[in-house]
Automatic annotation (TrEMBL):
The lineage of its organism: Bacteria, Pseudomonadati, Myxococcota, Myxococcia, Myxococcales. Keywords: Amino-acid biosynthesis, Arginine biosynthesis, ATP-binding, Cytoplasm, Kinase, Nucleotide-binding, Transferase. This is Acetylglutamate kinase. Residues 13-259 form the Aspartate/glutamate/uridylate kinase domain. GO terms for molecular function: acetylglutamate kinase activity; ATP binding.
């Protein structure tokens, strides 16, 4: 299915981030994100996908008798937690996303940012984090993205595949780190000079009232978004998503869209008409 509204983006990159929760319903993921990615490819757009797996990792930690510890939306990651992240991101979620894309006819090559140095990361030094008190927080084996191999992404795309990465990255010595998937997606999109980044989540966009999906804000400028964080309209998991988006908008991504999968066409329609189905951040 070729979509005419997308033809301006031929040859450009779109980056799509899938929250882990969405991978739990494969037919639904195929009919929404899968169908949209297929349409992007048919329009000659290069696509890279980053996925998370937060809920799956939490469930596995509990099954193994480990206590998940989240600090301001990030997971404290010791050695045992890192093992869980490997199992869920590179195992369960990777295969579930691969099967959804298979169903949608998308040639997805699913791996993690560890592969071939696609995502280089280093251990995050202790940092004061908004929402976590005045003391610096040491998150353990959590990484900051320090490099994205854009040329490797291009070669995978040139070979006819869609690179799909779980949010692990590593250093040159092969040490893996757990990284928030929104962080990986924003960094990849900036490095690829993406025309669009889609953060696909379980909410239809940024909401004026977080408990009422009918209060979606179609567009936000950086100044408006900062005001919504300061006034408490944007809370919890939405804060890092928006903060990182704003930072990367300044680094060269042209537009960032926070969008859901209900209706199934939401992502595709949002790509064609910014603000029609999600929240579009446009450079100020
Ligand atoms: N103003 C807001 N608009 C939309 N969602 C919000 C808002 N404030 C807080 N949230 C919360 O942010 C969550 C999305 O972030 P998160 O759970 O981290 O998503 P993901 O796992 O897809 O990365 C929503 O489920 C919602 O509970
Ligand atoms: C450091 C950190 O918090 N990493 C995340 C990585 C997975 C993720 O981001 O998954 P979602 O997109 O489903 O939230 C975590 O451990 O949950």
């Amino acid at each position: 299915m070729a979509v005419s509204g997308l033809k301006d983006f031929r040859g450009r990159w779109f980056v799509v981030k899938i929250g882990g929760e969405l991978a739990q319903d494969r037919p639904r993921l195929a009919a929404s994100v899968g169908a949209a990615v297929r349409a992007f490819l048919d329009a000659g757009i290069r696509v890279a996908v980053i996925h998370g797996g937060g809920p799956q990792a939490t469930e596995l930690q509990k099954k193994l008798g480990l206590q998940p510890r989240m600090v301001a939306g990030r997971r404290y990651t010791d050695e045992a937690t890192l093992e869980v992240m490997k199992m869920s991101l590179a195992g369960q979620v990777s295969v579930d996303v691969a099967s959804a894309f298979r169903l949608a006819g998308v040639p997805a090559l699913c791996t993690t940012g560890m592969s071939a140095g696609l995502i280089t990361a280093e251990r995050r030094p202790p940092k004061v984090m908004s929402g976590a008190g005045p003391e610096p927080v040491d998150l353990g084996l959590v990484g900051d993205v320090v490099g994205v191999d854009a040329d490797a992404f291009r070669r995978v795309s040139d070979a006819g595949f869609v690179p799909v990465l779980g949010s692990l990255g590593g250093d040159a010595r092969g040490q893996p780190f757990n990284i928030n998937a929104d962080t990986v997606a924003t960094r990849v999109a900036a490095k690829l000079g993406a025309a669009k980044l889609f953060l696909v989540s379980n909410v239809p966009g940024v909401l004026a009232n977080k408990d009422d999906p009918s209060t979606r804000l179609p567009t936000l400028t950086p100044a408006q978004a900062r005001e919504k964080i300061a006034s408490g309209v944007i809370q919890g998991g939405m804060i890092p998503k928006v903060e990182e988006s704003l930072e990367m908008l300044e680094e060269g991504i042209e537009a960032i869209h926070i969008v859901g999968i209900s209706p199934a066409e939401a992502l595709l329609h949002e790509a064609e008409r910014p603000g029609s189905q999600g929240t579009a951040f446009l450079r100020g």
